[in-house]
Amino acid sequence: MKKLVIIGASGHGKVIADIAVKNGYEDVIFLDDDETVKECAGFPVKGKTYEANKFDGDKVVAIGNAVIREKLSKDIKCIILIHPDAVISRRVEIGEGTVIMAGAVVNSDAKIGKGCIINTGSSVDHDSVIGDFCHVSVGAHVAGTCHIGDKTWIGAGATVSNNVNICSGCMIGAGAVVIKNIEEVGTYIGCPVMRI
Ligand SMILES: CC(C)(COP(=O)(O)OP(=O)(O)OC[C@H]1O[C@@H](n2cnc3c(N)ncnc32)[C@H](O)[C@@H]1OP(=O)(O)O)[C@@H](O)C(=O)NCCC(=O)NCCS
Questions:
Q1: CATH number for the domain harbouring residue 188
Q2: Which of 116, 119, 160, 189 best tests ligand 1's pocket when mutated (most atoms within 8 Å of CB)?
């Protein structure tokens, strides 16, 4: 029986549980530090996040916050989890701990770092590089030959135009459109984006 330990019993964790079931996991448990949370998506919460290595089975961190996701991933060997309805080119590199949701498209020669979330219906186009612990949110699009630095979050429905680089640690707001390189860490919103 395939076993999976999901670290973080959140909404994001629920989506990951569904992907796990689609990938043939039958024995799924959650870990969470909130003692009031007893179950998630019909699966039990069996312990705290720091206890991951006490449990048998594959592991994945289901925490939206990139800093916490990175911290929790440090001592755990995480699997790559891909929804069967994602479309992934045969010529893609994907780092450990990355999760790719339903309807996402990752095109040829893209590289996705460790611990990323490529969320529902998003896309990463050809030759783009997504750093470690990034999040490409639901319906966001990173066009071809972009470079997104570590822990940058591309908000829901945002678009990054082709050949654009965004430095590490940025927040790109929901619906934003990035048409030029971003070299200073910060939060950016609007079309075209402005720093706030
Ligand atoms: C950009 C963002 C991080 C800013 O959050 P914040 O720092 O709490 O900012 P506030 O909500 O206080 O908003 C500050 C101002 O920016 C505006 N604003 C915030 N987000 C905006 C956005 N995405 N697009 C346009 N304007 C936005 C607000 O209307 C507000 O304007 P005002 O001062 O004129 O009233 C947040 O709004 C956002 O877009 N988060 C992305 C969420 C997301 O994509 N989740 C995906 C889950 S899969």
A1: 2.160.10.10
A2: 189
